[in-house]
Design goal:
15 strands; 7-stranded parallel sheet; about 250 residues
């Protein structure tokens, strides 16, 4: 089998099963594992898969730049945001992550809702400026432009001095094995710092993120309260998450 044919086979297998185990593919194709690993390296370099130990997983489409993500799965993000906004109780406090889904949450909050919103996203803060009863606390630090959020040592230190009832956290990948992931190590650390300051953490995950992975793990499953997604309840990945004990809130 030619290299191009192997690559096509790998991509088809990834789309059909949601994962590639290099050892199994090598046995099936009667080639060496090194050959399969080289193919996966090439595919990963083109952004077509996320390499993991022993093989590969589907790459998240949510790693594009901020403007491109604004138009990605906008209907799904609105559905997720509607459910998430309903978790913010009157008089309550919420740590709201940055990113396009979190921005949809900010826009879904009732304008007359009295609450406290803590965020490390200038975009989120700006979206809530005209909410007369929302107290805003903006965490400063180095701005990570990809997601329009602050991160780094100064931001993590500032996060340690806040607390809230609820944390609404975005990720780029949601996978039963790879866990909750994102594309930047500093951003992953910041998300962990924010989650640690809330009583409950819910993950915001529109359907295009389900079953995909990014390089850096954010949190283990046991550290979250639940997952909010518009993915179909019959989705195999959603079923596997439920079997792991993850509380999945449907945003259909």
């Amino acid at each position: 089998m030619l290299a191009a044919e192997r690559r096509e086979h790998l991509l088809e297998l990834l789309a059909r099963t949601g994962k590639i185990v290099a050892k199994d593919v090598a046995t099936g194709l009667r080639v060496s594992e090194d050959t399969v690993r080289r193919d996966l390296r090439d595919l990963a370099a083109e952004g077509l898969c996320q390499r993991v130990y022993g093989g590969a997983l589907p790459v998240s489409p949510a790693v594009a730049d901020y403007d491109a993500r604004q138009a990605l799965a906008s209907d799904g993000k609105r559905k997720v945001a509607s459910v998430a906004a309903g978790l913010v109780r009157p008089g309550g406090s919420v740590i709201l992550d940055g990113g396009t889904t979190a921005l949809a949450v900010a826009r879904a909050l009732p304008r007359d809702l009295a609450c406290t919103v803590i965020t490390h996203s200038p975009t989120i803060a700006t979206a809530l400026i005209d909410h007369p009863h929302a107290e805003l606390f903006l965490i400063g630090g180095r701005v990570f432009k990809h997601s329009a959020v602050t991160c780094g040592a100064a931001a993590v230190e500032a996060a340690q001095n806040v607390s809230a009832e609820l944390c609404l956290l975005g990720v780029t990948g949601v996978h039963p094995e790879a866990g909750l992931t994102t594309a930047d190590a500093d951003e992953a650390a910041m998300k962990r710092a924010l989650s640690a300051r809330a009583a409950d953490t819910y993950i915001l995950a529109s359907s295009e993120k389900i079953g995909t992975a990014s390089p850096y793990r954010v949190l283990p499953w046991e550290s979250i309260t639940g997952l909010i997604t518009d993915a179909d309840s019959g989705d195999p990945t959603v079923g596997r998450l439920a079997a792991l004990g993850v509380d999945v809130l449907a945003a259909g």
